[in-house]
């Protein structure tokens, strides 16, 4: 019978073999969980490839002039709805739903808070999707969103279309 650990190593040393990888795995797992819960920016890891709107840029984001906030062409509208649906499924549905409060407010609540003309509402919802709103009626702050401007616009459009369609049923 051959041993994997050489016989010249004392028994007390044999017990310690293999614990370091287990400890490093545990630390890595804890770090991954912290990043998943709080986001990379909040734990001090810079994300240069993404730009989130800061509170300082709130007014410029809301007042941004754009004549293409809402899609003019049916093909563009379909593309934006598909993108908004995918973003909701992949990044938002864990905390938000259309009509029910989950870990975050429902889209209907968000819609009613930002209700205005469609263009203004799209701008406001696109900003809200960055989760810069710190206190929302007792809900914890969401993780920082790293969505591009186009993704935020598509998500806002998807919310508007679905919440407005409920009233037409």
Tags for this entry?
169 residues; Cytochrome Bc1 Complex, Chain D, domain 2; 7 helices; elongated
Describe this structure in words.
The protein is 51% helix and 0% strand. By secondary structure, it is mainly alpha-helical. It has a domain of 112 residues: Cytochrome c-like domain (Cytochrome Bc1 Complex, Chain D, domain 2, Orthogonal Bundle), CATH 1.10.760.10.
Query: What's the β-strand tally?
Result: 0
CATH fold-type name of the domain at 55-166: Cytochrome Bc1 Complex, Chain D, domain 2
Give the number of helices. Answer: 7
CATH homologous superfamily title of the domain at 55-166: Cytochrome c-like domain
What is the chain-wise order of helices and strands?
Answer: HHHHHHH
Distance between the termini: 76 Å
Uncertain segments: 47-68
Rounded to the nearest angstrom, the radius of gyration is 23 Å
What share of residues is helical?
40-55%
Q: What percentage of the residues does DSSP assign to strands (E)?
A: under 5%
CATH class of the domain at 55-166: Mainly Alpha
Shape: elongated
Major sheet: none
- What is the CATH architecture term of the domain at 55-166? Orthogonal Bundle
What's the rounded overall pLDDT mean? 70
Helical/strand content category? mainly alpha
């Amino acid at each position: 019978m051959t041993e994997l650990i050489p016989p010249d190593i004392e028994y007390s040393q044999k017990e310690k073999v293999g614990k370091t990888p287990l400890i490093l795995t545990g630390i890595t797992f804890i770090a991954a969980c912290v990043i998943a819960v709080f986001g990379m920016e909040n734990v001090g890891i810079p994300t240069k490839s993404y730009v989130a709107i800061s509170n300082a840029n709130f007014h410029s984001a809301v007042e941004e002039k754009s004549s293409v906030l809402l899609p003019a062409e049916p093909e563009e509208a379909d593309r934006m709805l598909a993108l908004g649906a995918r973003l909701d499924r992949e990044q938002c549905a864990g905390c938000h739903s259309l009509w029910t409060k989950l870990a975050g407010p429902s889209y209907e609540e968000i819609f009613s808070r930002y209700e205005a003309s469609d263009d203004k509402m799209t701008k406001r919802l696109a900003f809200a999707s960055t989760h810069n709103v710190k206190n929302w009626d007792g809900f914890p702050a969401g993780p920082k969103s790293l969505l591009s401007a186009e993704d935020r616009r598509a998500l806002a459009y998807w919310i508007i279309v679905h919440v407005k369609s409920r009233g037409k049923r």
